Amino acid sequence: MTTDGGGSAAEGEVFHRPPEQPTPVRHTRGPLRPDRLRSVRVRRARRLASHAFRAVDVLCVAALGATMLLWAATVPLSDIAVVQFLPFVGGVLMLVHLLRVSGAYRFDRTQRWVRQIAKVVLLALVVGTVCTGAALLWAPEPTARFVAWWTLGAAAGLAALHTCWWILVGRWRRQQWLTPNVVLVGATSGAESVINEAIARRDLNVLGIFDDRLARSPHTLLGVPVLGNTDALLTHRVLPHVDLIVVTVDPRATARVREIMNRLWTLPNAITMMVDQDEETARVAAVAHLADAPLAPLVRAVDPDRKAVGKRVQDLLLGAPMLLLALPLLGVAALAVRLDGRGPVFFRQRRHGFNNEEITVRKFRTMRVESADSAAARQVTANDDRVTRVGRVLRRTSIDELPQLLNVLRGEMSLVGPRPHAIGMRTSEVESAQLVAEYAHRHRIKPGLTGWAAINGSRGPLHTQADVKRRVALDVEYIERQSLWLDLKILVLTLPRLLGDRSTIR
Fold it and tell me: 205-210 and 181-185: which strand pairing?
């Protein structure tokens, strides 16, 4: 697998974070902050459960259909052609499709259990009735009887399954797995209205407020703390937990809004703006929309949630066998590092993950213990004296990065994606993240063990601003183009490109 300057440029156990900007906050916890903050990545796994629910429903309906076909095989139907079962097959496909497009997997807060169950049962009965009628016209009576039994079984099975989904989703809501976390930009009357409505509804977490006019801003607004200005938001530790940044500045203040949006667009977080702030009903409706927090929808033309599910399935199906196959190699590498000199076999480093979340990755130690530099302040150079003899082999072949397969299986990383850089990594004495405005855009998906940048020659340390710009441009290009086939192409090309690359410093 490939690696880069952010991942393996420096090693050590001590992580030094640059000092945060001072803020005027007096209270660190407001009335709308949960007792336990969970990152967007961790909570997204619950939102994506809608896809798992649908998969189980499909299996249930299909298994019931297969059972009906096996039953039909036991009945003397010598004069019935296979084509006569087409109404039955069509019914299965139609029901699966209608469940998806009808919003049966949305589990809206305002919808009652009875309505949810009535919807899926009614869909099953309607589809089954239509198919039964078609079977009576298309095939002999036994076929119609089998379709009718399948209809009743599908209705009962879906009712039972969706009752389980309803109970599970309700439990997740109570535990605030599905409650969105937002921050507000602008300590305005619009922000006050949002907070008031959120307090009344109790289904929206407002973690804090940021305002450029700190001299005129209160320390808290209805108990929600003002955490700093817009610049403080860009580097604040709360960002990995924020689902949405809501700009509550009056949209008629076009110059101020434009300035704020120009600053915020560099963040990987989703951003929206409150409009019609003079209309109380509009504000209430906007908060209701923010707080609805349905499970991931299944019907968007370009569905990033569906792509995320596919990517996770891909990581598990490919990552687990890869780890098993790599175990002998990992054992040999660990033994070689141990025999090469004193120090631990593995090195842990804090790196940027999805949505700027901090994750801990492990790699085989390739540098001398006394050369620890966890923030990659000094990136690797040719013939670097900090690298051990075994380390040179491990780095050249990227075997040192293979332990990150564990991060992939834990869901912190993906097999393919932008390589995770060390937090605080520096290029030419300047923090790399400060050299390119779009740097944080590479954190809009999970980091990868290999990536588009890696197979296109951007691997190893980043010594100049041009190197950083090219890496970021390739990463953003991958994020915009990401698909299963592109991921498979990158995985196939990784090994030959890695072995054929003799010029990159590792």
Answer: parallel
